[in-house]
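Appendix B, record 7
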Amino acid sequence: MSEQQIGPGTQVTLHFAIKLEDGQLVDSNFETAPATFTVGDGKLLPGFEQALFGMAEGEKGILRIMPEQGFGMPNPSNVQTIPRNRFSEMDLQPGLVVSFADAANGELPGVVQAIESDQVKVDFNHPLAGRTIYFDVEILKVQPA
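Structure tokens (predicted):
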């Protein structure tokens, strides 16, 4: 009998670390409990899932995820200029993450890029958009979903 490999219809338990090209650590669960997901459940971006396809229990790897398969490319239309008075008395600084409500009343974070006397430029692109990601994984368990 062959060892179960990651693919559609599998449940996967793993440790992972997400790093940038310069080695900066973005997220990791190697020091905590492993993560479990079912392929296609939306917990991982499809590009991250597909990079795992074919791996089996006990395997380790560092997978290179290009922006198009990860967090996408920055979209210039996701940078908005908002009137300064919408921020009340907030102490705005470039790099500050501000939360807005989207049309469905969900949370939509944006990063302040620039502040002028009467307007604020906010970037609503994902902070990792346009970045190549290194996905360091250790597969602990693969089983049918």
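Remarks on this record: The chain has a mean pLDDT of 93. The helical segments are 46-52.
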